[in-house]
């Protein structure tokens, strides 16, 4: 069942939705030196921080992910004009790191936390007390893509009148440490699909979309969500597998009722790691084989970092904006693509004109959890 | 849009979801004490369950290095639910390609998260084993189950507090209704390491934590007790339901005196994100252990996160209208 995307909001290191879209058009790299950690010991020095409303840049407020989530959920619901007191509204939050940062600070620094603050029920209910349920799905770097899939399934099954699919993540010291652990030297810049790329850097932020059954004659939605394909590689804990990724893409096309040649734009996962980018490029070449010239392909992590659980829905909103404005932002950090990407129409240097109506959004996570979404924007 | 590609995913949603297998793996809960919870639990879980350090007696020795307690217990529960002999499988389980995994746990990796940061701060990131890396991601339990048994269907990790177990059951049923899998392995698990226990104690009136795992297997239109719809509610008592009253009621922890029924935590202890799945596995075992003239109604949750309930009715019984 196609569903209408009727409200949306996001916050990234580049600011709110409008500021983020404007900076993406200019090709801004939003990374900066990390603010809160002992970077010398971690082996990670840079990232893409969201600037908090309170305190100075060295002062880390508690429960940052939940604060941004609340702001975005409230903004998306306001735009959609739905009322959780009158309609059955469910909320599904996709997150990679939950509020594990609060666990780190509680157990090692003595900063107080409540048990209930590890998940996002309290954060959402602070702004939307009447929602029917808040479900926290911790599905690594494709979490909000999984939230979107489940949201559409809930609407199709008649289990809700509207569903808010969301994503949020703040950096954790443990994940930064593991990223530093597997890098030869601190990564200076995140460069998706770039020859000689050095690895990934973490981003932060939150994103929310409101989904409702599509009705004829209502206000034109921001976009139509046609379908999301899900798969699990069942292959390796951290390394991606082209077979699992291709399966998720084909599942997405099947559910959405589209053929590869219908798709004019791909928002790639594009993490800038040694393994993701060639694997993803190979999967895209396989799936879009025979559709020459094929879709435009771009990625946003060079601009806003790897926002983990938020990444899928952030890419989705940037795909919506690209199709609405007819202009696709360039892949920040990319100048010389890897050989595996030969034949892909990567957007490099300047924004590209785009008349696509249907876009594909890729998100792949640790554990081989894949979510690929197909959306349409009518102009 | 053209709809020709929809044939693989029929738009008609499977109405009935059954629990076709179940297992409990609660180390140290095999002793009997006085009380209804103890009598019920030991009647359906007579086999002793090994602790995480002995998981190799169920799973074989291979592949357990750097696996957390929560992952080990979850693997044991799934192994038992499928009735597998001890040791590692040589090939994926039959039907694994269309099998989804949904795991509920809140504290599964909290000790690892602390240890990684503590080791880094005491020296540098190079002191942390890269083998511990996957455990920094909370979905490691669900993805490890997929890798071990070859489950390539959707793979979900639910970390939703006190209702997390029934949220996982709810999402598992949704995956079946959406035609995303032919079978869903649902697991609820919590460890009881010192970091997890410390977090559990933060709740006002918090009463310890017990390591536990449980597994239920969900399939559409299959033999086995029939699952109703999971419903959320603000108070411990489940909303009024149509149809016959439940013959067995399993109450949310600490609410048996308010809502009636059996509180399994009286015997098992607090198991937080595992509770809902544990209750469902007990109810499924109870229903399949004899002729039952009524279904089970189970409720999990607390005053902070709210409550969730679901009915499980005997195979062959029509699920009451309004309950699904």
UniProtKB/TrEMBL annotation, chain B:
GO molecular function, one term: acyltransferase activity, transferring groups other than amino-acyl groups
InterPro entries: Ketoacyl_synth_N (IPR014030), Thiolase-like (IPR016039)
Pfam families named among the record's database cross-references: ketoacyl-synt
Start and end residues of each Beta-ketoacyl synthase-like N-terminal domain: 70-224
UniProt name for this protein: Beta-ketoacyl synthase-like N-terminal domain-containing protein
Source organism: Streptomyces scopuliridis RB72
Lineage: Bacteria, Bacillati, Actinomycetota, Actinomycetes, Kitasatosporales
């Amino acid at each position: 069942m196609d569903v209408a995307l009727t409200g949306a909001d996001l916050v990234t290191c580049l600011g709110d939705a409008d500021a983020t879209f404007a900076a993406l058009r200019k090709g801004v790299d939003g990374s900066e030196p990390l603010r809160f950690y002992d970077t010398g010991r971690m082996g990670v020095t840079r990232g893409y921080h969201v600037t908090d409303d309170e305190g100075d840049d060295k002062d880390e407020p508690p429960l940052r992910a939940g604060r941004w989530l609340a702001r975005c959920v409230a903004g998306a619901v306001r735009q959609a004009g739905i009322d959780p007191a009158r309609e059955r509204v469910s909320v599904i939050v996709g997150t990679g790191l939950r509020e594990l940062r609060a666990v780190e600070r509680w157990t090692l620094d003595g900063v107080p936390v409540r048990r209930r603050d590890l998940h996002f029920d309290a954060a959402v209910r602070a702004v939307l007390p009447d929602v029917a349920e808040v479900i926290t799905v911790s599905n690594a770097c494709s979490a909000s893509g999984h939230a979107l899939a489940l949201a559409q399934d809930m609407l199709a099954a008649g289990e809700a009148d509207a569903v808010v699919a969301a994503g949020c993540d703040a950096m954790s010291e443990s994940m930064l440490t593991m990223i530093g652990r597997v890098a030869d030297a601190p990564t200076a810049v995140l460069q998706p699909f770039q020859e000689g790329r050095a690895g990934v850097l973490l981003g932060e932020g939150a994103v929310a979309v409101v989904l409702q059954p599509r009705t004829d004659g209502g206000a034109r939605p921001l976009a139509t969500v046609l379908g999301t394909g899900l798969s699990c590689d069942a292959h390796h804990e951290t390394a991606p597998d082209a077979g699992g990724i291709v399966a998720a893409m084909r599942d997405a096309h099947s559910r959405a009722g589209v053929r590869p040649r219908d798709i004019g734009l791909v928002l790639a996962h594009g993490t800038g790691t040694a393994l993701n980018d060639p694997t993803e490029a190979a999967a895209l070449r396989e799936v879009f084989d025979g559709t020459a010239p094929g879709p435009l392909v771009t990625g946003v992590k060079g601009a806003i970092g790897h926002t983990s659980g938020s990444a899928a829905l952030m890419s989705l909103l940037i795909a919506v904006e690209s199709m609405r404005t007819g202009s696709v932002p360039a892949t920040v950090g990319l100048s010389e693509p890897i050989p595996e990407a030969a034949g892909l129409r990567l957007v490099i240097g300047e924004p590209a004109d785009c008349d696509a109506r249907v876009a594909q959004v890729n998100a792949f996570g640790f554990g081989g959890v894949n979510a690929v979404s197909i959306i349409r924007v009518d102009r | 849009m053209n709809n020709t590609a929809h044939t693989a995913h029929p738009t008609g949603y499977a109405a009935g979801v059954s629990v076709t297998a179940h297992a409990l793996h609660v180390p140290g809960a095999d002793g009997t004490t006085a009380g209804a919870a103890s009598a019920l639990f030991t009647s359906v879980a007579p086999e002793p369950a090994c602790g995480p350090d002995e998981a190799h007696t169920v799973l074989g020795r291979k592949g357990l290095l750097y696996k957390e307690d929560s992952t080990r217990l979850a693997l044991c529960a799934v192994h038992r639910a499928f009735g597998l002999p001890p040791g590692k499988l040589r090939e994926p389980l039959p039907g694994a390609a269309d099998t989804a995994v949904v795991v509920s746990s809140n504290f599964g990796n909290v000790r690892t998260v602390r240890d990684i940061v503590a080791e880094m701060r005491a020296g540098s990131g190079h002191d942390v084993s890269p083998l511990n890396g996957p455990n920094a991601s909370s979905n490691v339990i669900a993805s490890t189950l997929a890798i071990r048994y070859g489950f390539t269907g959707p793979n979900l990790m639910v970390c939703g507090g006190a209702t997390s177990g029934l949220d996982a059951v709810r999402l598992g049923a949704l995956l079946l209704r959406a035609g995303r899998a032919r079978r869903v392995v649902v697991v609820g698990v919590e460890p009881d390491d010192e970091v997890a226990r410390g977090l559990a104690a933060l709740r006002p009136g918090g009463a310890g934590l017990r390591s536990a795992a449980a597994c239920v297997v969900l399939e559409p239109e299959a033999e086995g007790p029939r699952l109703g719809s999971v419903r959320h509610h603000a108070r411990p008592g489940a909303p009024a339901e149509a149809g016959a009253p439940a013959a067995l009621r399993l109450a949310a922890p600490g609410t048996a005196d308010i809502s009636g029924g059996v509180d399994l935590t009286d015997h098992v202890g607090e198991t937080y994100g595992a509770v809902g799945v544990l209750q469902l596995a007990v109810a499924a075992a109870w229903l399949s252990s004899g002729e039952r003239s009524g279904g089970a109604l189970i409720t999990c949750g607390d005053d902070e996160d709210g409550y969730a309930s679901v009915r499980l009715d005997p195979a062959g019984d029509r699920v009451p209208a309004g309950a699904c």
